[in-house]
Amino acid sequence: MRTVAVTGGSGFLGSLLVSRLADQGLRVINVDLQPSPQEHPNLESHQADIRDAEGLRKIFAGKKIDTVFHVAAMLAHGSIDEKTLWTSNVDGTRIVAEQARRAGVERLIYTSSNCLWGQNFGRPVREDDAPAPVETYGVSKWEGEKELKKFENDLQIVTLRCPTIIDEGRLGLLTILFDFIAENRKVWVVGGGNNHYQFIYAQDLINAMLRVWDYKRSGTFGIGSDDVRSMRDVYQYVIDKAGSGSRVMSLPKAPTLMAMKLAYHTGISPLGPYHYKMIAEDFSFDTSAIKRELVWAPTVSNHEMLYRAYRYYFQHRREIQARKNVSAHRKASSLGVINVLKWLS
After folding, report:
1. DSSP character for 160?
2. In this structure, what CATH number is given to the domain that contains residue 132?
3. How many structural domains is the chain composed of?
4. CA-based, 20 to 30 A from 30: which of 17, 74, 123, 320?
5. CA-based angle 326:329:333, to the nearest 5?
6. Do residues 58 and 32 lie in contact, with contact meaning Cβ atoms separated by under 8 Å?
7. Can you give the pLDDT of all 345 residues of the chain as single tens digits?
């Protein structure tokens, strides 16, 4: 039986990946700070810290692991301090690669982020565009990429730079939007809402990960959906499909961005520098390289995947609100000062 390891296999993307791999008959080893939300005869779960080199060595020892899917990452949400985020995303990534090399693993697949940038390029972002992150999470993901580059003589390293990953069960900051729609409140866009911001459907991302098995080289790819509509159109699609009485309304761009910056720096908003820089901007990856090299294509558009995520939230809202000890993307986000906007809606 082919054996693979997944770091962060208890999180939103990781749990979907674990299920897919185990259902396909692979032996899956999950390493995560949180307990696994699932059981499967092909699944072996370890509640462990990827920064613990000796612990990771023992988990990998003697397993003949084919591939490590390095999905684990600390997000800049809630009470996570910057030191913990940095050591997890940078030092942890290096330690995962070191222990994979020591265990004789053939390849490591790493999920990076579009947070490597915080500006509108006026065109899709290419693999050769120099990263310029604007907050700690983005910097940590870029440093993680650089750490992995050092291992390319010993491991096949494939990095997938991902925009926002969405599927049924994706929560986190999206629950702010979903609450407004579920309660028939006004849904706000900044400026005219005519900006185009690319997402990626989780199962499409997993499809790309699995295509790496047929790709025998190291490489870095931007990934994302096709048919990227404006944010106003995407929100309206979800509202219409949900049968909600919400309306999409505009907030003036300049004063809204100024207020978002102030709210973040005073600690009363969950939306950080990346959000207030990109909330009214265009961003997409040029996906021609991944389509060509991995023979991959997306199957679900932004508007449809966001509706699927909303539908899941609406159907499980009470249970979701009660969740504890799960990853940031598998629970509802705190509204903070956004409660004021909710009250006004």
Report:
1. E
2. 3.40.50.720
3. 1
4. 320
5. 90
6. no
7. 899 999 999 999 999 999 999 999 999 999 999 999 899 999 999 999 999 999 999 999 999 999 999 999 998 766 678 999 999 999 999 999 999 999 999 999 999 999 999 999 999 999 999 999 999 999 999 999 999 999 999 999 999 999 999 999 898 888 889 999 999 999 999 999 999 999 999 999 999 999 999 999 999 999 999 999 999 999 999 999 999 999 999 999 999 999 989 988 888 777 888 988 999 999 999 999 999 999 999 999 999 999 999 999 999 988 887 777 777 766 666 656 566 566 566
Instruction: Say what the pTM is.
Output: 0.94
Structural domain includes residue 135: yes
**Is residue 182 in a domain?**
no
Q: Indicate whether 276 belongs to any domain.
A: no
In this structure, which amino acid lies at residue 327? S
Question: Could you count the other beta carbons within 10 Å of the beta carbon of residue 146?
Answer: 12
Query: Which domain covers residue 66, as residue numbers?
Result: 3-166+198-222
The SS3 of residue 58 is helix
Calpha distance 162→199 (Å, rounded): 8
**Contact of 102 with 60, CB cutoff 8 Å:** yes
